[in-house]
């Protein structure tokens, strides 16, 4: 126990720009709150104000420049303290790893440009949980300290509110959890909150922070607050109770160096319903994140190879929209209905910018590829009204791969073709499939091909309308018969009445991979849950299942077979198109759901046939193993259950196997034993905090049609043997196709953009540096093992290598001047010495 400890009073204004109001109201409230804070600084000489979120300052800068100038003076004075370093206080589970990097990049650089400083304290006092890679992300963002409030003590016990938080790679930040609200004093007495923190400080042997100020809808410290604080300090000691900031608190703690514990864990769990509330905004978030990354990559190549101006300003605007929509009450799905109309518009602008910039880059590259044939004298459409094919010479298409490894996958070409070859003239197998159009009786067919495209690269394929160039027979065939899909590796059987997957048989080992029925649509009762899922840890109150299935063979061919399974529950309809390719044991499913339920949840269940199950899932720029206890948890693009294969014959060594479940737009699941349940949809009331259930004026979320995809990935060995990171990204980032014509050009018909020697290293980002003449390449280690990898960027004529700690994220600055070395920088694109 220490007698010299202090309570640091933190004057703040928690500002939700969107929650029970729309962003325009939040915009106005931020201006009023900042004006109030400036007034307090004028009225009380000892007062210090703390505020995060670069987006708020940008609004004030553009709409109240005189007030912004005042703020700059107070920041320079040291009495207005900027914390957080991020664009907004986001949900800290659901954005991608790269989105967190962008919050740091744009937030910290904004603060540096406008105020000459960067935040040193990470600050997310209202976010609903914090993933386990946060310490490394904070350190890479120039922040050595972190401040949060949730989960609170009743949600997660911590030995001490001040601790070292460590992530898997060994990064460590000094972290403080608020033991009380970020807002005003409690009603239990004028000094109860401060005295409680004074007592805790003495018991724990280190200073404490105590927050005050009207919050949520802004406001901040009031005159009455500061007058009361002056009375309390006079009564209980001015030296022991000080007006302070998080920066000052952590500076003092580093100096005093108290003995505090090290915690290596995620900070969970609060508001479990927020991982699945409002499907549309979550799906658009995922889509926008990936589209902007693809746009940046190919805009970079188009600039390097062909001089297309890099679209930095529009891409930055698009990222600002995506980051704003990651605010915790938006990304968490707990705002009012009208707010999500705005969210749709912000995502729409970001997606449109991504589409335009991506198209410009792809068109620039494809137009520069040499596709000319000697027989062609000039362009003509005499042969076909759609393509530019002449005299059975073929029409070129360019298939682009935005991922940093070679991808082999099925690609749909929007025209019925007779044959297709690669750039070398080698014919490849073809399958006719139904198109989305119905243009008369005959024009309703597309073609399916297997494309194999280099990393960060492209490949030209030649399509023939009439010329038949037979392809070599496929090594294995894929079959469909009534309710069974089968290839050389796997056999999938669907129950004829229920529509559930009754069997997934591994034909190579003659073992069953399911421990019961799979793809079971389970309806969960959640009348007891508000929008957030407050006070809950699970959603497992089953009240029904979809059934009465209709099964139809949708596709039957040499490359892929598909069964359409349609099932029903009340007025809701679930349609699952279950596909199996000829060359893979992966089972791909496209889903259309028409959901008409209220206060209910839909989960899809997959019981995996293993013993001693373990569960691992993706978190931002990393992974985590969690207990298989049925608790609702957040995840990113994949979750895996693996364990010992049962029924091993006497004398044989028991093998490890498992199954991954990938998704393209979902963020919630639970695992109980070896059963994965992916949360598909919830239908609570909008922004409902335990309202009356008989209110007939409320509106419910996620009514109507939504579409998404998932993939089952059986694998031998542990999750590390399943290529889950790569396959999940292949589901989320399919190849891009561009029709072309005949023209000369400087580029070859096949090109590889990046070469990475180690499969465990994935490159997520290739973009122009924010400043300086060079490029940014960001990579991370995906399997939790130390490794060294070599890198090649042929377009930049660059090669280098780097050693990675397990789960380490590395950002490389590649100068335009090839005489200058590639160097490592942080998320803010600064070297540690800068």
Automatic annotation (TrEMBL):
<dbReference type="InterPro" id="IPR027291">
    <property type="entry name" value="Glyco_hydro_38_N_sf"/>
</dbReference>
<dbReference type="GO" id="GO:0016787">
    <property type="term" value="F:hydrolase activity"/>
</dbReference>
<dbReference type="InterPro" id="IPR037094">
    <property type="entry name" value="Glyco_hydro_38_cen_sf"/>
</dbReference>
<dbReference type="Pfam" id="PF01074">
    <property type="entry name" value="Glyco_hydro_38N"/>
</dbReference>
<comment type="similarity">
    <text>Belongs to the glycosyl hydrolase 38 family.</text>
</comment>
<dbReference type="Pfam" id="PF17677">
    <property type="entry name" value="Glyco_hydro38C2"/>
</dbReference>
<protein>
    <submittedName>
        <fullName>Glycosyl hydrolase-related protein</fullName>
    </submittedName>
</protein>
<dbReference type="InterPro" id="IPR013780">
    <property type="entry name" value="Glyco_hydro_b"/>
</dbReference>
<dbReference type="InterPro" id="IPR028995">
    <property type="entry name" value="Glyco_hydro_57/38_cen_sf"/>
</dbReference>
<dbReference type="InterPro" id="IPR011013">
    <property type="entry name" value="Gal_mutarotase_sf_dom"/>
</dbReference>
<dbReference type="Pfam" id="PF09261">
    <property type="entry name" value="Alpha-mann_mid"/>
</dbReference>
<dbReference type="InterPro" id="IPR011682">
    <property type="entry name" value="Glyco_hydro_38_C"/>
</dbReference>
<dbReference type="InterPro" id="IPR011330">
    <property type="entry name" value="Glyco_hydro/deAcase_b/a-brl"/>
</dbReference>
<feature type="domain" description="Glycoside hydrolase family 38 central">
    <location>
        <begin position="270"/>
        <end position="347"/>
    </location>
</feature>
<dbReference type="InterPro" id="IPR015341">
    <property type="entry name" value="Glyco_hydro_38_cen"/>
</dbReference>
<dbReference type="InterPro" id="IPR000602">
    <property type="entry name" value="Glyco_hydro_38_N"/>
</dbReference>
<keyword id="KW-0326">Glycosidase</keyword>
<dbReference type="InterPro" id="IPR041147">
    <property type="entry name" value="GH38_C"/>
</dbReference>
<keyword id="KW-0479">Metal-binding</keyword>
<dbReference type="Pfam" id="PF07748">
    <property type="entry name" value="Glyco_hydro_38C"/>
</dbReference>
<keyword id="KW-0378">Hydrolase</keyword>
